[in-house]
């Protein structure tokens, strides 16, 4: 029995990095409808524990999706099946964040891989931690 799924084995990794901008945060709010002023209103945010606008947690989680969809196995189709997330620290405009996914288990019979998922800031602060399940299929 093979111990890989479309070339992915335990320990395979992929990363995606992006610099967060206020424009990106505002666009995310428009696309999702999450217009909570914590994300875009500096005066409002100054009265919170964060003292400044912060990115939506799912903005950072979106980078996990980007790592899976564009970097994990670009020669195959990666289909997100499940994701658990823990939001551990805030992200603000100007932060550079990197999502890294690491294969922790392969299930060749079902064409699935389990992943450890983590998003970190430029200073190494872990902002999101979780795990995911992905189906990986050959391109038709």
Structural account:
The chain has 140 residues and is an alpha+beta fold. The protein has a domain at 13-20 and 57-138: Roll (Thiol Ester Dehydrase, Chain A), CATH 3.10.129.10. Helix content is 23%, strand content 39%. It contains three helices and five strands, in the order E-H-H-H-E-E-E-E. The protein has helices spanning 22-32, 42-46, 57-72; strands at residues 13-19, 76-87, 96-107, 112-121, 126-138. Strands 1-3-4-5-2 form a five-stranded antiparallel beta sheet, covered by helices on one side. Strand 3 (96-107) and strand 4 form a beta hairpin. The longest helix is centred in the middle third of the chain and has 16 residues, at 57-72. The model has no long low-confidence stretch (mean pLDDT 96).
The portion of residues assigned to helices is 10-25%
Order of helices and strands: EHHHEEEE
What is the terminal separation in angstroms?
Answer: 23 Å
Fourth CATH level, the homologous superfamily of the domain at 13-20 and 57-138: Hotdog Thioesterase
What integer value in Å does the Rg equal? Answer: 17 Å
Main sheet? 5 strands, antiparallel
The name CATH uses for the topology of the domain at 13-20 and 57-138 is Thiol Ester Dehydrase, Chain A
Tell how many strands the DSSP assignment holds.
5
- Which stretches are low in confidence, meaning pLDDT under 50 for 5 or more residues running? none
| CATH architecture group name of the domain at 13-20 and 57-138 | Roll
């Amino acid at each position: 029995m093979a111990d890989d799924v479309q070339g992915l084995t335990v320990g395979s990794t992929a990363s995606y990095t992006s610099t967060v901008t206020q424009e990106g945060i505002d666009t995310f709010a428009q696309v999702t409808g999450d217009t909570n002023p914590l994300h875009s209103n500096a005066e409002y945010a100054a009265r919170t524990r964060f003292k400044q606008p912060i990115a939506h947690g799912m903005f950072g989680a979106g980078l996990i999706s980007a790592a899976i969809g564009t970097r994990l196995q670009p020669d195959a189709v990666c289909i997100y099946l499940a994701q658990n997330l823990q939001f551990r620290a805030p992200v603000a405009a100007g932060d550079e964040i990197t999502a890294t996914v690491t294969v922790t288990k392969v299930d060749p019979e079902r064409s699935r891989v389990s992943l450890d998922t983590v998003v970190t800031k430029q200073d190494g602060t872990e902002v999101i931690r979780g795990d995911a399940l992905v189906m990986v299929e050959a391109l038709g």
